[in-house]
């Protein structure tokens, strides 16, 4: 349901500030895409609506499924037509979910305003329109802009090569307007981005070459140059790249990037998947941007795995709305971590919980040397179900007290690293968060088992709330 902040006549969607957002209503439903591509089930992906209101007769159940009209799209991430960046515009409403397809390059516009518990398909932007108008493909992250437009990052070009550009949609018609960046300014690779107008900056990250990573992960493709390791700094007003920061091997595959939510802050964090490091980026006194490595997840020496050492593989990262805690998931090791970032240059680990992963005690992988753990973690069982796959996408409640986690990363990588999850489906769990002193624990009463879906086991990915969240809202 729409909140008071979203319907009052003097304001637009979202909240005036991040701290105001923390006082918003508790989430009651959640949207997340469910993927059939690469699972052996030839059915369309769909958007699931899940009831997360305690006391509801449908608590932790899928209450609606909106199938897409096409197959093999690979729904992945999503965003809104309007968010807190449009708070000052009373004509805007957060009522359309932008749902890009990572592989087909199709973009679905879903109407969540008419009936939030039963969304409907509003419009389809076909791949040909994206290709012809922008020369881009494989859309990933979607953010609304204060202008009323919607911007999506691209990962590739129509031929499957790497290309990091930005697709602009009209915020009313959702027609493709062209590219945000000026001609010739696209980056070699793309993935995620975050903008901060007070500092006239946007920073984007890199994944890899779509026609390479879409087939599965091979370590030799790193050396062959098919994966990124750079941050790209953009002039927000001029739409041009002004700086490229090469993170080197210690920053291999930088994925999710988050500025601090405080719009006056000129710093943030990026999680680097393969190197399993977190870098802090910040504006220097000279006015350019620099980085420092602030968190390192050590590799574990193992046997009975594809390599003698296993990285954590940081795949998602987020910040609480008060900029006090940083959270991230290690998709191979299987843990979610919580860090106190009161001192942004010296994050302190204050919470950790294991959910699945590749190093469970009764699994085939044997850890022979570990800098952090004295023994391999026990399997995670919730409501009688053993969790296959691993902690992956995470989303924090507005008040910072509940963390939702799903276990699927990308269908072909899921099939490669966690074949049992393809057979049994992914899950969504809820993590209880100590938001005062730190600490994480699994809620034993919450489980959404996507292995029991009517169409067969499916892979659920990124989580969104109707009222916005800490990874889709940007404040000006």
TrEMBL record:
<dbReference type="GO" id="GO:0008430">
    <property type="term" value="F:selenium binding"/>
</dbReference>
<keyword id="KW-0472">Membrane</keyword>
<dbReference type="GO" id="GO:0018549">
    <property type="term" value="F:methanethiol oxidase activity"/>
</dbReference>
<protein>
    <recommendedName>
        <fullName>Methanethiol oxidase</fullName>
        <ecNumber>1.8.3.4</ecNumber>
    </recommendedName>
</protein>
<keyword id="KW-0711">Selenium</keyword>
<comment type="similarity">
    <text>Belongs to the selenium-binding protein family.</text>
</comment>
<dbReference type="InterPro" id="IPR008826">
    <property type="entry name" value="Se-bd"/>
</dbReference>
<dbReference type="GO" id="GO:0015031">
    <property type="term" value="P:protein transport"/>
</dbReference>
<dbReference type="Pfam" id="PF05694">
    <property type="entry name" value="SBP56"/>
</dbReference>
<keyword id="KW-0653">Protein transport</keyword>
<dbReference type="GO" id="GO:0005634">
    <property type="term" value="C:nucleus"/>
</dbReference>
<keyword id="KW-0813">Transport</keyword>
<keyword id="KW-0560">Oxidoreductase</keyword>
<dbReference type="GO" id="GO:0016020">
    <property type="term" value="C:membrane"/>
</dbReference>
<comment type="function">
    <text>Catalyzes the oxidation of methanethiol, an organosulfur compound known to be produced in substantial amounts by gut bacteria. Selenium-binding protein which may be involved in the sensing of reactive xenobiotics in the cytoplasm. May be involved in intra-Golgi protein transport.</text>
</comment>
<dbReference type="GO" id="GO:0005829">
    <property type="term" value="C:cytosol"/>
</dbReference>
<keyword id="KW-0539">Nucleus</keyword>
<keyword id="KW-0963">Cytoplasm</keyword>
<comment type="pathway">
    <text>Organosulfur degradation.</text>
</comment>
<keyword id="KW-0007">Acetylation</keyword>
């Amino acid at each position: 349901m729409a909140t008071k902040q979203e319907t009052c006549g003097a304001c637009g969607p979202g909240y005036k500030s991040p701290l105001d957002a923390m006082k918003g209503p508790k989430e009651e439903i959640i949207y997340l895409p469910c993927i059939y591509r690469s699972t052996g089930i030839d059915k369309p992906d769909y958007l699931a609506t899940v009831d997360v209101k305690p006391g509801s007769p449908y608590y932790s159940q899928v209450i609606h499924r909106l199938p897409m009209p096409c197959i093999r799209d690979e729904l992945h991430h999503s965003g809104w037509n309007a968010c807190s960046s449009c708070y000052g515009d009373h004509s805007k409403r957060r009522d359309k979910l932008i749902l890009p397809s990572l592989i087909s390059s199709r973009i679905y516009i879903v109407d969540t305003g008419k009936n939030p518990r039963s969304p409907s398909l509003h419009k389809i932007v076909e791949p040909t329109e994206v290709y012809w108008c922008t020369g881009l493909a494989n859309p990933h992250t979607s953010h609304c802009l204060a202008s009323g437009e919607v911007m999506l990052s691209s990962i590739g070009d129509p031929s499957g090569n790497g290309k990091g550009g930005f697709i602009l949609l009209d915020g009313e018609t959702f027609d493709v307007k062209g590219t945000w960046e000026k001609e010739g300014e696209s980056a070699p690779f793309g993935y995620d981005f975050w903008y901060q107008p007070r500092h006239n900056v946007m920073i984007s990250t890199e994944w890899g070459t779509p026609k390479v990573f879409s087939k599965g992960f091979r370590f030799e493709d790193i050396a062959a140059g098919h994966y990124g390791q750079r941050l790209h700094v953009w002039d927000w007003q001029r739409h041009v790249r002004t700086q490229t920061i090469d993170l080197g091997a210690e920053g291999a595959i930088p994925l999710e990037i988050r500025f601090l939510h405080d719009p006056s802050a000129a710093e943030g964090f990026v999680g680097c998947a393969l190197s399993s490091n977190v870098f802090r980026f910040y504006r220097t006194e000279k006015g350019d941007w620099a980085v420092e490595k602030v968190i390192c997840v050590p590799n574990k020496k193992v046997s009975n795995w594809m390599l003698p050492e296993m990285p954590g593989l940081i795949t998602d990262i987020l910040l609480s709305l008060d900029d006090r805690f940083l959270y991230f998931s290690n998709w191979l090791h299987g843990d979610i971590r919580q860090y106190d970032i009161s001192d942004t240059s010296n994050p302190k680990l204050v919470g950790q919980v294991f959910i699945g992963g590749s190093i469970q005690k009764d699994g085939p992988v044997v850890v022979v040397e570990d800098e952090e753990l004295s023994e391999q973690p026990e399997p995670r069982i919730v409501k009688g179900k053993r969790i296959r796959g691993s902690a992956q996408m995470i989303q924090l409640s507005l008040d910072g007290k509940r963390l939702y986690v799903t276990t699927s990363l990308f269908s072909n990588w899921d099939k490669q690293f966690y074949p049992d999850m393809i057979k049994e489906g992914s899950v969504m769990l809820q993590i209880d968060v100590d938001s005062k002193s730190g600490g994480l624990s699994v809620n034993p009463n919450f489980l959404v088992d996507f292995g029991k879906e009517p169409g067969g086991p499916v892979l659920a990915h990124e989580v969104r709330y109707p009222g916005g969240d800490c990874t889709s809202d940007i404040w000006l």
